[in-house]
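Worked example 2:
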Amino acid sequence: MQVLSPAAFYFFYYKYMKQFIISILIVFLAVQITWAGRAPVKKIARDPYASAIMLNAETGEVLFAENADATVYPASVLKLMVLYVVLDRVEKGTLQLSDMVQVTREASRMGGSQVYLDPKEQFSVEELLYALMVQSANDAAVALATHVAGSKESFVALMNQKAGELGMKNSHFHSVHGLPPGAGQKVDVTTARDFGILCRELVRHPKVFKYTGTRVRDFRQGQFVMRNHNHLLENVDGCDGFKTGYFTAAGFSIAATAKRGGNRIIAIVMGSKDRKVRDARATQLLAKGFSMVPAKSEPVVAAAKTKSIQKPIDSSSSEVKVAATPAMQPENVVSPTDGGGWSKFFLGVVVGFVLCALLIFFAARKKNRRSLKYRYRR
């Protein structure tokens, strides 16, 4: 067996290791440049959560609240406001669910959770609403916003207008998707109490549950399968809607609702460090809520009348703390993250480049050794 001479070894080492190191530096710099385009956002995620609220959907009574007025980032839970604005237009007759939406180039370039829209495609408003709620698709959010208002900026103005009309005094939106802000942009802010107000309003619109309560749905004629990130839909009795959200600084958030015994309870958990903790706390709040209100029959006509006289949540409402209960163990399958996941994406890119560089390094090394071995034999 031939052994490389010191001169040959050092030639090989410096030639290929230099290429390897340069490749790693290029990847590192690319990641840093990309992250430099992101505006710094203060991390608000806490254990078990940054804030939470639970309320009776019919009366608006706050059954539990903890830091309910603390400023939080809604992340993809923000898309509930997009849904509300779109459905408001549909109910007023200025927009049809069957209207076709032309995908814009801007929408097709959105990252994070998406359905990979192409500028050559068109989809109905209804199909994009499913994509918005089930897949939490950022590209669908931009496509809908542009179609409804002409631009993202104009649609954001509509979102803030509706928030003001509903009495969401501590909410201000800057995007239609809830992703972390880019350079020169501001982060979306809200409170658990404000989203309680929005969720009570959403309950009045039956179509909301059609979209937020769907667990799995095909998109693009079955070429893409969308799966809801809200696992309470399958694990909590009576849970039939609303939305999850996540990006690193914001933490894991959820707005969930369930209906049992003629009562509907809304639970909102914002800014949890852990997805399973978020889901467990939301589950506990819903269970506690139903234990605090007497079961009743709910005739269809009576329910409609009750909904018509609902009042906004009053910040002065009495608040009852939920007794500490053991953490529940939700499903072990980790769902895709909403509205972000950039850190994992770039980590994957770096790991991929490193593995490729290593493969090239060892392949070249093996080829060089064979060449030298053949040369010495001659």
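The chain is about 45% helix and 15% strand. The CA atoms of residues 40 and 181 lie 8 Å apart.
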